[in-house]
Amino acid sequence: MNTGTSITQSQSQSQPEPGTRLGTVLAVLRGRAVPYTRPGSRSAIAKTPVQGPVHIGPLGLNGDEQGDPRVHGGPDKAVHQYAQEHCAPWRAELGALPVLYASELVDDADDVRRTWTALFNAFLHPAMERFLYSAEHKLKEASAQSPLLVFRNDGHAGRVAKTIAVQTYSSGPRGGMEGARVLAQHYGLPRLLSMDVGGTTTDIGLVDANGVRAERRGRVEGVPTSFALCDVVSAGVGGSSILRVEDGAVRVGPESVGSAPGPACFGLGGTQATITDAFLLGGLLDPASFFGGALKIDAERARAAIRSHIGDPLKLSDDEAVAAMEAAWVAKVADALRGYTGIGTDTTLAAFGGGGPFVACRVADAIGVRQVLIPGHAAVFSAYGIGFSDVGHSSTPTRPHAQPPPPPNATAPMPPTPAPP
Questions:
Q1: Which helix (H) or strand (E) segment is 126 a member of?
Q2: Cα R_g (the chain), whole angstroms
Q3: Among 92, 180, 261, 320, whose CB has the most other CB atoms within 10 angstroms?
Q4: Is residue 167 exposed (0-12), middle (13-18) or buried (19+ Cβ within 10 Å)?
Q5: Concatenated DSSP letters for 56-113?
Q6: How far apart are the first and last CA of the chain?
Q7: Contact of 156 with 391, CB cutoff 8 Å
């Protein structure tokens, strides 16, 4: 991603001065030797420096610094003390300001990846904290017997106080993958490829002999993080994706009308042609029972949008225009599935989400899959899958890199001189 590249370039082109605050913080985060002063009064800080630099080494598995023993606690304590000493003048102006430490969030030797993880978490944390603690408080007031649990992208759930915000990223699609994992185990499917079709995207995932496919260093919008995240990709094609004619062919998305104004057939002001309008004219949606009859969908509005944006530019009848729209939509979903993983004879396609089952068989034909699985709760399958998650937490600490062995012709170090008796 361009953002990560620019950071790497800026670090190599212009390093902050060692004596600046930014330079000191970066040095601490990178585990370099920094001048260190003991905490205390301002006069004591200025007059009682530790003699020589103090090496802030990598964290051990127990959180203790593995380098210079003169600083107990390592980077955690050094950053804490630095923040306490140098951020105190800002408190009167900023008030109560939460400080989230990257070193407390994750044990990762890669400082760029660790910093991005901390930034994402700091962005998500405040809003989630307010909302979830408020919800938990209301549940207690209502005498709820069970605690509020938050589902995470690692497939587990936990109490609000134990939840790391960034680990909830894309947890909705992961819920669908948990349901797919249970289905694969129940039916003995060795390789289950899933397509979760929503309003704006199609989320694609895979369950195989190793379980739900995940990345050890999960990505948020293409940026690697320190946590493992489910490897679900989102293709820009869904039930509300706009279909139009470009260069004599039907193009699908990635633009979407969303839920407001929504597809033209919803009668909420939308005028663009979407695959939902095509499904209605193709007989896949029943106006009388759609949304339990609470939302009246209008076939004539759908027909007008398709005729205006697809039929007339291509000189097609209404039926031909609907067929062309479905073919283009299926082709885009099939391309995304093939780009995600190889398709073998043991692959089964699972289709869920609000729009997944409609043309699942056509998608399966396009990618060469002979077996299709459509769950009974397809429209709410991600929520259904969350019900199979366990309460738990997982972590994979990163050990410091071992030092490379000395070259064969290196001189062996002299043994230390024994202390006199």
A1: helix 111-141
A2: 28
A3: 180
A4: buried
A5: ---B-TTS-BSS-TTSTTHHHHHHHHHHHHHSGGGHHHH-S-----HHHH---S-HHH
A6: 62
A7: yes
Alpha-carbon distance of 121 to 227, in angstroms, equals 11
**CA-to-CA separations, 272 to 34, 257, 301, 356, in angstroms, rounded:** 60, 8, 10, 21
152 in Cβ contact with 158 (< 8 Å): yes
Q: Mention every residue, 6+ apart, whose C-beta is less than 8 A from residue 223.
A: 1, 3, 4, 116, 120
The residue count of the chain comes to 421
Report the DSSP beta bridge partners of residue 206: 193
Q: Distance between alpha carbon 314 and the CA centroid of its chain, in Å?
A: 40
Q: What is the pLDDT along the chain (421 residues), one digit of tens a residue?
A: 433 333 333 333 444 454 454 455 455 445 444 444 434 433 333 333 333 333 333 332 233 333 333 333 445 555 566 666 666 666 566 566 666 777 777 778 888 888 888 888 888 888 888 888 888 889 889 998 888 888 888 878 888 888 888 888 888 888 889 999 999 999 999 999 999 998 888 999 999 988 888 888 878 878 888 888 888 888 889 888 999 999 899 999 888 888 788 898 888 888 999 999 999 988 888 888 877 777 788 889 999 999 999 999 999 999 999 999 999 999 999 999 999 999 999 999 999 998 889 999 999 999 999 999 999 888 889 888 888 888 777 665 555 544 555 555 544 454 554 555 4
Going by their DSSP bridges, the two strands 219-220 and 223-224 should be labelled as antiparallel
Which residues 6+ apart lie within 8 Å of 332 measured at CB?
A: 235, 237, 252, 253
**Phi-psi map region of 70: left, alpha, beta (phi>0 left; psi -120 to 50 alpha):** alpha
Tokens, residue 320: 């031909």
- CA dihedral 32→99→163→110, nearest 10 degrees, is -20
CA 127 to CA 34: how far, in whole Å? Answer: 35
The whole-angstrom separation of Cα 141 and Cα 371 is 49
**What global pTM score does this model have?**
0.68
Kindly provide the b/e burial profile for residues 175-200, where b requires at least 16 CB atoms within 10 angstroms of the residue's own CB.
Answer: bbbbbbbbbbeeeebebbbbbbbbbb
Cβ neighbors of 62 (< 8 A, separation 6 or more) are: none
